[in-house]
């Protein structure tokens, strides 16, 4: 006998195996309940022959706690572990360094709401009618405000809850504001945050606006000014919102640690999404950043990093850190007009270029996720659903369609979990669709109604060199596969604004028009607002609406999103999606003459 190896395995106390699914075929059958904490876990020691020394071999682990930390509109290169030098993220960097950074991480849509719905459902949102953001509660679109993520979709939160997990969602929801879509109805035991797509950050700023609008009887108060809630009950929050969400995440961990069950926490910060609002102390940390937007944006990311450190400390103080899988990511690419950077990726939020939906991401779990590594193969947030179900011993409902894959074994083995498979993204615009798909090292892309392009994304991550002319057969094959996938889409159940609904109906968008045509003669490129730099005084629709909202609320006027949308359309004379400084001057001069 050369040595004795010790195999440490959890006890089978109270273990009840669930019905086997596809997930179980390549994974150890052992599925364990989570104990109170690391010091009380019972271990059974087995003696086995080992050829070399007295090495310890670890068998199937206890089911981990799972913590997903999601930022909102965070740029690919706006964290230290992805190369940021002007934004300091020491807490995130420490986790990334002792975990594995995913350098080719994707989300299923370049906008907030559809991306989140994809993560929670494990499906592309287009397949259940959710390719657009839900409309802001201030839009006054009653039928749309009753919409949300398909009630027939079993979310990963429910799968884990049914598997014995204590579940919590903290922060931004953006998947429906009424009871059928509420987090407490969709698998979360504890929810603290806001239901809409965004929020102001300072209670002393938004609370008076809300109270004034409520007293005036405005039925369409903008969601950015609504009170936060805890499990359906309105709360009078007093802290800067990012700090408040961090505080509540710590509370959830403290509560969860007292329970004899594992926990799942979805911590969804709204930072650094607009409005750009930061604490004075955080702004002082970035006094050397000259650009005002970038400085405020950096301070907002700084606050997130501080909060993540607080959550990590709570995990450690509760002896849960070593038993917790932490995943960090953004919901989509950074919004470059709001201070974000996505270098070396092209473009940003809303785009089907890499900068729109390739995001910063890392996995961290001491003793399980390899430390100090980079995983170069494609990973999608769609993969979280089956992977979490596998790790947590959850049962995926019979007949449940998933676009994600259980990547765990391939991830640990540093192998491509999606070899030969495609990762898709589609963004519908007025009269045409932007679309792209990646398969291994190749990516096809069509945007702004231009011709299809082909890139070797491993060698050309910035998507500068179109190789379609040299590889026509590959281009045709990949576009054909994407068109086949598009047939799984259904009619959108809502649009982010009424104007978009009218445009959809008028342009025949349900049929994709000529989106998947390879014929270059059918390409009629258009200029899209976010693809060009804005001059001083220019505004995209989103920026214009945001500034008008702040002005209306400051003056105590009842917010009318439809009226402001029409105002933007009147100003944007050339219909390029940007209200230029010259167009604004012309509009206001005309209004002055008419009045």
From TrEMBL:
Domain of life: Bacteria
EC code: 3.1.6.1
One matching Pfam family: Sulfatase
GO MF annotation list: arylsulfatase activity; metal ion binding
Domain Sulfatase N-terminal: from-to ranges: 64-393
Alphabetized UniProt keyword annotations: Calcium, Hydrolase, Metal-binding
SUPFAM superfamilies for this protein: Alkaline phosphatase-like
PANTHER family assigned: ARYLSULFATASE FAMILY MEMBER, ENDO-4-O-SULFATASE
Family as reported in the entry's similarity comment: Belongs to the sulfatase family.
Protein name as it appears in the record: Arylsulfatase
Organism of this sequence: Novipirellula herctigrandis
Recorded name of the encoding gene: atsA_94
């Amino acid at each position: 006998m050369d040595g004795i190896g010790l195999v440490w395995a959890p006890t089978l106390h109270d273990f009840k195996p669930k019905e086997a699914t596809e997930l179980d075929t390549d994974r150890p059958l052992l599925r364990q309940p989570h104990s109170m904490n690391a010091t009380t876990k019972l271990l059974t020691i087995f003696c086995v022959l080992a050829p070399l020394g007295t090495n310890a071999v670890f068998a199937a682990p206890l089911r981990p706690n799972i913590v997903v930390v999601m930022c909102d509109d965070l740029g690919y290169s706006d964290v230290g572990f992805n190369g940021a030098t002007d934004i300091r993220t020491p807490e995130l960097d420490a986790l990334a360094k002792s975990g594995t950074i995913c350098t080719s991480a994707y989300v299923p849509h370049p906008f907030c709401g559809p991306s989140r719905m994809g993560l929670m459902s494990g499906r592309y949102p287009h397949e259940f009618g959710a390719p657009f953001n839900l409309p802001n509660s201030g839009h006054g679109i009653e039928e749309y405000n009753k919409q949300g993520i398909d009630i027939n979709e079993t979310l990963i939160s429910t799968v884990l809850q049914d598997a014995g997990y204590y579940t919590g969602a903290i922060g931004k929801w953006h998947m429906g504001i009424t009871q059928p879509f509420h987090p407490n109805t969709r698998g979360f035991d504890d929810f603290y945050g806001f239901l809409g797509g965004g929020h102001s950050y300072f209670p002393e700023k938004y609370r008076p606006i809300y109270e004034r609008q409520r007293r005036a009887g405005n039925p369409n108060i903008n969601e950015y000014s609504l009170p936060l809630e805890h499990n359906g009950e309105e709360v009078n929050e007093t802290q800067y919102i990012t700090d408040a969400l961090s505080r509540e995440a710590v509370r959830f961990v403290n509560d969860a640690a007292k329970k004899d069950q594992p926990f799942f926490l979805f911590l969804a910060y709204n930072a650094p999404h607009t409005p750009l609002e930061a604490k004075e102390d955080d702004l002082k940390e970035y006094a050397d950043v000259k650009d005002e937007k970038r400085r405020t944006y950096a301070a907002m990311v700084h606050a997130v990093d501080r909060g993540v450190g607080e959550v990590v400390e709570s995990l450690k103080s509760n002896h849960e850190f070593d038993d917790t899988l932490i995943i960090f990511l953004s919901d989509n690419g950074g919004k470059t007009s709001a201070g974000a950077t996505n270098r070396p990726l092209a473009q940003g939020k809303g785009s089907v270029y890499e900068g729109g939906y390739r995001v910063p991401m890392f996995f961290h779990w001491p003793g399980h996720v390899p430390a100090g590594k980079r995983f170069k193969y494609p990973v999608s947030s769609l993969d979280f659903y089956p992977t979490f179900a596998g790790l947590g011993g959850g049962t995926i409902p019979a007949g449940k369609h998933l676009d994600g894959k259980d990547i765990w074994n391939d991830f640990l083995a540093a192998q491509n979990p999606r070899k030969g498979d495609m990762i898709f993204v589609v963004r519908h615009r007025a009269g045409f669709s932007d679309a792209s798909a990646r398969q291994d090292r190749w990516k096809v892309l069509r945007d702004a109604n231009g011709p299809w392009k082909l890139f070797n994304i491993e060698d050309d991550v910035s998507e500068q060199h179109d190789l379609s002319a040299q590889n026509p057969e590959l281009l045709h094959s990949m576009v054909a596969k994407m068109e086949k996938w598009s047939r799984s889409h259904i009619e959108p159940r809502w649009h982010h604004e009424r104007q978009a609904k009218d445009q959809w109906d008028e342009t025949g968008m349900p049929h994709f028009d000529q989106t998947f045509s390879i014929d270059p003669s059918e390409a009629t490129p258009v200029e899209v607002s976010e693809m060009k730099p804005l001059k001083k005084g220019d505004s995209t629709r989103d920026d214009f609406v945001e500034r008008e909202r702040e002005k209306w609320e400051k003056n105590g006027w009842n917010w009318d999103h439809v009226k402001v949308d029409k105002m933007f359309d009147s100003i944007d004379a050339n219909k390029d999606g940007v209200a230029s400084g010259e167009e604004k001057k012309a509009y206001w001069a005309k209004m002055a003459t008419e009045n």
